[in-house]
Design goal:
The chain is an alpha/beta fold and 428 residues long. The chain has 13 helices and 26 strands. Helix content is 30%, strand content 29%. The structure holds shikimate-3-phosphate and phosphoenolpyruvate. Monomer.
Length: 428
């Protein structure tokens, strides 16, 4: 599907974005491991989370889905059954890596695979600690890439010092730790998003968090419960950036997750001069939630580096567009992890924005953008990467002429209503 974006004169709205992708995945997985019924409200019916539902269904778990309401009927940690076929995680790194942790604890054989993008992403980062806990895992490329064949069961608890700040690695080990006797601990170089710890505790597991160290006690009795998923800040950020530089723009996004391990983009946008107000702060199912209002202003360049990178890694394509529209230089560094996402997001962001006329230079671990050049509408590739397609659309709203985005249907991965939402907001 090709989408054409025309420049926008004003943006106005008061809306919600769909449920958080990271939290939706975890609610289905923990629901599958819990006893009794888990009711998930505001679930993200995007392709990635539907892959997670498919995978847990193939393991014998009953799941009912009706729009954004999902009911999971789990039978406890020992109730998952050997799947009859290969498990397909589609485009979703979260599904593959977190399910690898769960399957490592299950005493049967399973194979996890995914689409061409996912089969190029590094899996050794989970295979190594899970094998050290006792899972037997073999995979393509000398245990580097999916497909991954797992024979699980009889795990030992561990203390794992992860070389990367990755919530997927941390979560894979913690989820495997549920199946082991004793306490499993993960120590990270920097704190990654903490939804797994929060939700494990919400379902009744014993969790201890000390700075960059998280421990889970093995063999808990997880209890099915109701989870209300907050709106996805990673989706909201595209709309916030779309409005940030438009004079007179006024947008309120309600019910957005503002977990501090996810909301670095709000800090950066404020630092760049965006007129953002966060209000109605509250707690929903163990996660902080708020409403966010942005009004158009002028942005200036900034530096985004190590301390904040884990808290905004998925927002960097959107922030790169903000930087191209800002006055002055923006430097993004210490973000080499971007190279291991659905695409190599350093290369694809640089390709997209240079094609549109921005002054952007690729670095090994990020990019440098000298903002303020007029953007030019063009025909661009999404490379099948949902966040790149949305970044292209937001840049297109601020470019001269028409921007055509190829394979734009990939927005269905995380934000199926993205283009409709942009239409609702745009005053042509
Ligand atoms: O745990 C999660 O839900 C996620 C963790 C991050 O990946 P890493 O763990 O590779 O940093 C993030 O980029 C991804 O979109 C979702
Ligand atoms: C990297 C992402 O997701 P995943 O790793 O789950 O594919 C993303 O949504 O930007």
């Amino acid at each position: 599907m090709e989408i054409a974006i025309t420049p926008v004169r004003a943006l106005r709205g008061d809306l919600q974005v769909p449920g958080d992708k990271s939290i939706s995945h975890r609610a289905v997985m923990l629901g599958a491991l819990a006893e009794g019924e888990t009711e998930i409200e505001n679930f993200l019916p995007g392709e990635d989370c539907l892959s997670t539902i498919q995978v847990v269904k193939s393991l014998g778990v009953e799941v009912h889905i009706e729009k954004d309401r999902v009911v999971v009927r789990g039978g406890g940690l020992n109730a998952l059954q050997e799947p009859e076929n290969v498990l397909d995680a589609g485009n979703s790194g979260t599904t593959m890596r977190l399910m690898a942790g769960i399957l490592s604890g299950c005493p049967f054989f399973s194979v996890l695979t995914g689409d061409a993008s996912l089969r190029r992403r590094p899996m050794q980062r989970v295979i190594k600690p899970l094998s050290a806990m006792g899972a037997r895992i073999t995979s393509r490329g000398g245990n580097a890439y999916a497909p991954m064949a797992i024979t699980g069961g009889a795990l030992c608890s561990t203390t794992y010092r992860s070389p990367v700040a990755s919530a997927q690695v941390k979560s894979a080990v913690l989820l495997a730790g549920l199946f082991a006797d004793g306490t499993t601990t993960v120590i990270e170089p920097a704190r990654s998003r903490d939804h797994t710890e929060r939700m494990l505790s919400y379902f009744g597991a014993r969790i201890q968090v000390k700075d960059k160290q998280v421990s889970v006690w093995g063999r808990p009795k997880l209890q099915g419960c109701k989870v209300v998923v907050p709106g996805d800040i990673s989706s909201a950020v595209f709309l916030l950036v779309a409005c940030a530089v438009v004079p007179g723009a006024d947008l309120t996004v309600r019910n957005v997750g503002i977990n501090p391990t996810r909301s670095g983009a709000l800090e950066v946008l404020k630092e760049m001069g965006a007129n953002i107000i966060i209000f109605n702060e509250r707690q929903v199912s163990g996660e902080p939630v708020a409403d966010i209002r942005i009004r158009g202003s002028r942005l200036k360049g900034t530096t985004i580096n190590r301390a904040i990178i884990p808290y905004l890694i998925d927002e960097l394509p959107a922030l790169a567009v903000a930087a191209a529209l800002a006055e002055g230089e923006t430097v993004v560094r210490d973000a080499a992890e971007l190279r291991y996402k659905e695409t190599d997001r350093i290369t694809t962001v640089v390709k997209l924005l240079s094609q549109m006329g921005a002054d952007i230079i690729e670095q090994e671990d990020g990019f440098i953008i000298r903002g303020g050049r007029a953007l030019q509408g063009t025909e661009c590739e999404s490379f099948g990467d949902h966040r790149l397609a949305m970044a292209a659309a937001v840049a297109g709203l601020h470019a001269r002429g028409i921007t055509k985005i190829k394979s734009a249907e990939c927005v269905n991965i995380s934000f199926p209503a993205f283009f409709n939402t942009l239409n609702l907001l745009s005053v042509q």
